[in-house]
Amino acid sequence: MLRLFKTTKQKKLLSSVIDGDIPSHIALIMDGNGRWARRRNLPRVAGHRAGVESIRRCLHGARELKKVKYMTFYAFSTENWQRPSSEISYLMDLPGYFLNRELKTLMENNIRLGIVGDISRLPDHTREVIEDGMAQTAGNDGVYLNFALNYGGRDDILFAARKIWQELEAGNLRQEDIDKDVFASFLLTGDMPAPDLLIRTSGELRISNFLLWQLAYSELYFTDVLWPDFDEIHLYQAIADYQQRSRRYGGLQQEE
Ligand code: V0D
Predict the structure, then answer these.
(1) Of the candidates 27, 70, 9, which has an alpha carbon nearest to the alpha carbon of residue 238?
(2) Whole-number Å distance between alpha carbons of 34 and 51
(3) pLDDT tens digits for 146-173?
(4) What's the 13 CA to ligand 1 centre distance in angstroms?
(5) pTM for the complete prediction?
(6) Superfamily of domain 23-152+194-242
(7) Is the dihedral of CA 224, 228, 229, 231 positive or negative?
(8) Is 202's C-beta closer than 6 angstroms to any atom of ligand 1?
(9) Residue 246: CA atoms inside 13 Å, Cβ hemisphere, count?
(10) Residue 54 DSSP symbol
């Protein structure tokens, strides 16, 4: 990784990021794969596959900083089912493609795989490789690598509300017990802390139904870089930007 940081400017970036406040949870919206492919006259799916490399680079870059504890990548939204079925079937092979190559690295680096979203309706082979990956890494507790899959932020809030209703009906909860922390514990992100930093690539300035509740106080970082071009240096630029802001607002920023 350090080999990437060649110029004086890049070395400065690396050392200032290391000295600063590192976000413990980074969430990422991986946008721009289709556009990246089109610019190269490649099929869209080639962009998705190239996007897997960016995940590996980000994970590696984050690990290097030691203090990033959670990374949550938005891999597939509930709206993505509207894409052509050929594209969907290609996407459903990517968890297997990723885990075939990375499971060993996940084990060697104490990384735990988690899913945020409902994977019960995914094709059997997709669900099985994911469940196998989660089972194999269940004992790891270094970095929590999460993929949001078949995830929608409004659904997340809605399901939490329904579960809370059930617990009320069952007499396991009292109305006056339901505060923000209790509510958050019913979300699919469960006991994870909220993201400190959200990164979205490819120039779109939206949250797009990602972690709606959880992003309430997160710093948002948008870049025009397309996801397949995103690397460790871009990640560190995003973190450097986050550090500037948290210094500026130091101590005053949050209500909770
Ligand atoms: C396509 C760019 C990794 C964004 C990255 C099924 C969209 C590559 C996974 C993955 C996708 C998911 C679960 C898991 C391990 C890996 C993935 C999908 C799409 C949708 F346990 N990349 N990736 N899943 N893309």
Answers:
(1) 27
(2) 10
(3) 999 999 999 999 999 999 999 999 999 9
(4) 29
(5) 0.96
(6) Decaprenyl diphosphate synthase-like (3.40.1180.10)
(7) positive
(8) no
(9) 19
(10) H
In the chain, domain spans: 23-152+194-242
The per-residue pLDDT for range 103-138, each reduced to its tens digit, is 999 999 999 999 999 999 999 999 999 999 999 999
Question: pLDDT tens across 19-45, in order?
Answer: 999 999 999 999 999 999 999 999 999
Select from 102, 116, 9, 112 the least CA-distant residue to 57: 102
Ligand 1 neighbourhood includes 149 CB (under 6 angstroms): yes
Contacts (Cβ under 8 Å, ≥6 apart) of 11 = 5
Asked if 210 and 35 count as a contact pair (C-beta separation under 8 A), the reply is no
CA distances from 186 to 14, 102, 195, 207 (A): 37, 30, 16, 21
19 is annotated as an active-site residue: no
